[in-house]
Specification:
Elements (H helix, E strand, L loop, with lengths): L6 H25 L5 H24 L8 H9 L13 H22 L10 H13 L2 H35 L3 H23 L11 H29 L1 H5 L3 H13 L7 H31 L1
Helix pairs in contact: 1-8, 1-10, 2-7, 2-8, 4-10, 4-11, 6-8, 7-8, 10-11
């Protein structure tokens, strides 16, 4: 993988978002069973650390540089440093900016706009939604929507920060397994402390049922483990902007799973937003490929 070209990172990041979508659907299913989301996060990060530590030791023990205080601070604090350079005076630079903006627009439409339904509602899902609607009044729905929007915004900011920091870490400490294992270790400690403060009922710390155990294990080993290793590699190869631009494809996969597994309806906004995301990614990839062909000429 020394010369991945353009399509190597594309395949990896699309596969990563596909896995994230499947994990999100599974987590939604166990959260509906009143599993504590804080405990899920704590166990997920702990499993990721335990899973990646042996891989980091055996795969990177000969190439791993010394772990300095500066690198540890980057991993722990996740400071906002650095960004991919874009030359807006070239066609490639303008295409990358345009493609990113189209992706963002498509993702916002996917999230905020429904439009007319394009499929008939599933009977079982309709009954479940009706029961939930009776149990929750409009005030509570508005409150949950507001809180959810705030948390999603904060999550987007934090993930953007991670992409930027990872670009710096990849240059100083180019060991994806080790850096991800350390990040999971710090995340497990932070979430465990928070869980002890918020969740005092220790009976909820125990996972019950095959679905809960499988979901948390899969989320820890594959999603928080291997997928973050893959994203770190993509950031190292193509930069943070390129990697982050594929995040809207996650919403396309979730919309597909939402319809096929959770039996939700497909709306016009989902289709229109998905089309915009695909167009934006195509424009971004064209700009990225063009910039890589122009770089040797400029040098």
């Amino acid at each position: 993988m020394n010369s991945p070209g353009l399509w190597g990172p594309v395949v990896v990041i699309v596969a990563v978002n596909f896995v994230f979508a499947t994990v999100n659907v599974l987590i939604k299913m166990i959260l509906d069973k009143e599993v504590s989301h804080i405990i899920v996060v704590t166990n997920r990060q702990a499993i990721s650390c335990v899973f990646l530590a042996p891989l980091a030791y055996f795969c990177e023990r000969k190439s791993r540089p010394n772990l300095t205080t500066s690198i540890l601070c980057h991993l722990f604090i996740s400071s906002l440093l650095g960004l991919e350079k874009v030359n807006i005076k070239t066609d490639a630079g303008r295409a990358k900016i345009l493609g990113t903006l189209i992706c963002v627009a498509g993702a916002m439409i996917l999230t905020l706009y429904k439009g007319m339904p394009l499929t008939r509602p599933y009977r079982g899902a309709t009954a479940a939604m009706g029961n939930q609607g009776n149990m929750m009044d409009s005030t509570k729905k508005t409150k949950k929507w507001t809180i959810g929007s705030v948390f999603l915004t904060a999550s987007s900011v934090m993930l953007s920060s991670w992409f930027l920091v990872q670009g710096r870490i990849g240059k100083k400490y180019p060991c994806q397994y080790s850096s991800t294992a350390l990040m999971s270790f710090f995340a497990a400690i932070q979430s465990a402390i928070f869980s002890l403060i918020v969740e005092r009922d220790f009976s909820k710390w125990v996972l019950k049922g095959n679905l809960e155990i499988f979901t948390v294990t899969d989320a820890g080993t594959v999603a928080s483990g291997l997928c973050f290793v893959g994203m770190s590699w993509c950031v190292k190869q193509k930069g943070p902007v390129f990697t982050a631009a594929f995040n809207p494809s996650l919403q396309i996969f979730i919309a597909i799973f939402d319809f096929s597994i959770l039996h939700a309806q497909i709306y016009l906004g989902s289709v229109f937003g998905s089309v915009l995301v695909v167009i934006g990614l195509y424009v971004l990839l064209w700009g990225k490929a063009r910039s890589e062909t122009e770089q040797p000429v400029l040098n």
